[in-house]
Amino acid sequence: MNKIKIAGAGISGFTAGINLIKLGYDVEIFEKKDSIAKRFKGDFQGIENWTTEEDAIEIIKRCGIETNFKITPSYKFKITSYDNKITNFSSKRAFYYLIQRGFENGNLDKSLYEQAIKLGIKINFNVKELPEDIDIIATGPQKSSAIILGINFKTNNEDTHLMLCDNDLAPKGYAYLLIVDGEATIATAFMPTEKNSNLYLENTINKIKSLFDIDIKDEKKFGTYGSFSTNNIYEKNKQLYIGEAAGLQDFLFGFGLRYAIISGYLAAKSIHEKTDYSLMAKNTFSGTIKASFVNRFLYEKLDNKKYAFMINKLSNVDDLILFLRKRYNFNLKRKILYPIIKKIYT
Fold first, then answer.
1. CA distance linking residue 166 with residue 80, whole number of Å
2. Which residues lie below 8 Å from residue 276, measured CB to CB, with a gap of 6+?
3. Which of 2, 38, 126, 316 has a CA 20 to 30 Å removed from the CA of 223?
4. pLDDT tens digit string along 120-169?
């Protein structure tokens, strides 16, 4: 039996391991921390559902993952800006799916861990030095490209999905309130070059309190970060890089779970079929990553008044999901803009 060694017990690492052990491989995972999901405390994250026609749930299943974790579709959400005008959006297709991160029952990380253990994957914790013959690198973010600060809490408020575009709350980013079945997250996401990060979170909480009669109980603060790159490393020294270790992340909104799951699946597929993983990954991700890079540049040009103008324009779009999908298409316009914008950033 062929043995596969994976560095990192995260979403992409577990996805690769689960697929490989189902294909008959002996899989061993090495994790430097003493447990999984140490960065996460039950905070909500989204799996976006607009960049492809195939629904995200079907993609997860196709990638060999059992959906026995709590996953909530969002058919309605709200957006506001500095003017406090709340605009409602709705769709027959889910805009995104919400999951919770961490090691609690029903959370994505706990589910993947249990699926891996059930299948017989060996997981080693507190690994300070990786074996030299690691096959897959799934060690998460390699640098801090975006900061997320927030609080998780219990509430009696009704389910709400709210996005706040306001540079006083999240410079060049966005803040959000998510409530699902009495559990909630308030957070702000912004670039790591910004100072006064705690002030942004405080401003976000105060803004939400001014908009809603919000009930906050059992508050717990959290902080995490994400890693983006257009110079994605998919293979180095015969090791396959997946998830955020490969720099796979959406440059605009930071949705990375889809990339983590698909890249883990592709790595397993390439090992079993003896195909070129790097080529498969480039063909799958390159266009969308580059389009999101252009989208990020354009988004950062918006000030608060332009945010309000953008929200108003979006409210008149017939099909917001189709509108977003077109913005993630690496079409001729974005192909022309991409090298120019990349030169500006570098």
1. 8
2. 270
3. 126
4. 999 999 999 999 999 999 998 877 778 899 999 999 999 999 999 999 99
Beta strand extents in the chain (DSSP E only) = 3-7, 26-30, 44-48, 72-74, 76-80, 87-90, 96-100, 122-124, 136-137, 146-154, 160-164, 174-180, 183-190, 217-226, 235-236, 239-241
Give ∠ CA 309-314-319 in degrees, rounded to 5: 175
Confidence of residue 346 (pLDDT cuts 50, 70, 90): low
CB atoms within 10 A of CB 317: 12
Query: Can you tell me which residue has the tokens 């996460």?
Result: 40
* Number of Cβ within a 10 Å radius of residue 245: 27
- The mean per-residue pLDDT over the stretch 266-291 comes to 97
pLDDT, tens digit (0-9, with 9 covering 90-100), for 28-37: 999 999 999 9
Neighbour-count burial of 193, counting CB atoms closer than 10 A to its CB (0-12 exposed, 13-18 middle, 19+ buried): exposed
DSSP assigned state of 219: E
In angstroms, the CA 294 to CA 341 distance is 7
Q: Would strands 136-137 and 146-154 be described as parallel, antiparallel, or unpaired?
A: unpaired
> Taking all residues of the chain, what is their mean pLDDT, rounded to a whole number?
94
Q: What is the pLDDT of residue 344?
A: 85
The amino acid that residue 237 corresponds to is: N
Q: Cα(272)–Cα(32) distance, rounded to whole angstroms?
A: 26
- The full 3-state SS of 86-135, as one line of letters, equals CEEEECCCCCEEEEECCCCCCCHHHHHHHHHHHHCCEEECCCCCCCCCCC
C-alpha span between 181 and 93 (Å, rounded): 21
Q: How many residues does the chain have?
A: 346
The whole-angstrom distance between residue 38's C-alpha and the CA centroid of its chain comes to: 16
